[in-house]
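Fold this sequence, please.
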Amino acid sequence: MPNPAAALPSPIEFFPALTACAGVRHGFITRIPGIDVVTDRAEALIRLDSAHHRARADLGLAEKVFLTAEQVHGNRVAVIAEAPVNEQCFAGADGLITNRSEVSLGIYVADCCAVFLIDPLRHCLGLVHSGRKGTELEIVPRAIEAMSERFGTNPRDLAIQLSPSIRPPHYEVDFTAEIVRQAGAKGVQQIHDHGACTACDLRRYYSYRAEKGRTGRMLALLALA
């Protein structure tokens, strides 16, 4: 008898634009089959933790220090310029930038967009949580500015990737289009949008709106190799 789980797609997605960037590891962990996440965010993340840890190991990131952001729908970008000793969640932050190869950045999403920023010339990168509010507060332009100020990034050298996120008609605002516009206005020339709507494919993704707030979170991962 066929195993239903065998027909499910892989829980890790890769983006061709980032795969083409040498010296970078990334992954987008989608819905994990068989884990009950019909609960609040905190409990859902606890239930997903083991599977997310295995995915990090599969990506070769298990030995790196795992860093996340509190994600308060703001525009604060935390800078990691020194090697941390322990895993850390940066309070009040929705974005992370670093030039340290010892760390792995993580952002959790379930309709909002995870935005990957890579500067292959200066060997630095960023990972940002940008939903409707964060986009209105221009967190992606702030991350670009922070990378320029701290690491010398020229926006023209950046490669930016947008993850799957909720989109019209399932959401009244197309904030991903605004993220693309904002990044372009800062001078970024390589902007890639995955294009998938999280609310359109609940077999593949978690959607806060479609599942009325009781669901899991995808995990975006980014690190220097």
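The longest strand covers residues 103-109. The chain is about 25% helix and 25% strand.
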